[in-house]
From TrEMBL:
InterPro entries: Hemerythrin-like
UniProt name for this protein: Hemerythrin domain-containing protein
Gene3D superfamilies: nmb1532 protein domain like (1.20.120.520)
Domain Hemerythrin-like, first and last residues per copy: 12-145
UniProt source species: Micromonospora parastrephiae
CDD domains registered for this protein in UniProt: Hr-like
Amino acid sequence: MNKNHVEAMADVRDMYMAHTVFRREFSLLPQLVRDVAPGDAKRAEIVGAHADMLCDTLHLHHEGEDLLLWPRLIERGGEEAAAIVPTMEVQHHAIEEAHAAVVALLPDWRRTGRGGDQLADALEHLRAALIEHMAMEEAEILPLAERYVTAAEWNELGEHGMGKTPKKQLPLAFGLVMYEGDPEVIKAVLAHAPLPARLLMPIIGPRLFAAHAKRVHGTATPPRIGAGAR
């Protein structure tokens, strides 16, 4: 793969930002569900819509890795990749099963506000599997990606997720990231966006997240997870 000697390689810092969002929001979700009074369908719909959005985002995130990251690492990463990628695939399968259990319970709870304890337990299970996976991915996979995946190929991961996310949801999704995101990395990510998005997203994203967080969490500034949780 001689071209990699002259091509820029992956800047994986955006993956840490995505993981911070997942750590924060999936850690807060079980208690958010438990705090909804049984039968309070109005509140359940607000929290449930938030959970549904996060579950969709997580699914797209892992789908991108399955399609675009694991095959390249296996092809190029030799014994190092062969030793860890199969574990990543097994963990993705376990997360997908936990994810499916949550998604199966969400619609009825959103509609009725009943069955919250069962849903919260399923979210706890999903969170535990996700936290373990992300820690291992950061320790083992991201260093390999920096060596074996080009910047252009890495950008395809983000494009995969954005391409399948409803356009109207993208500014809020960016706000979720910006809440704890490194401004330098955010600027690097936006460098690939069209000019209007580069100008508007840093203004609109945080405002949308603040309003969304106030509605979901009861505060525009929910507890931050930060880098220390890695």
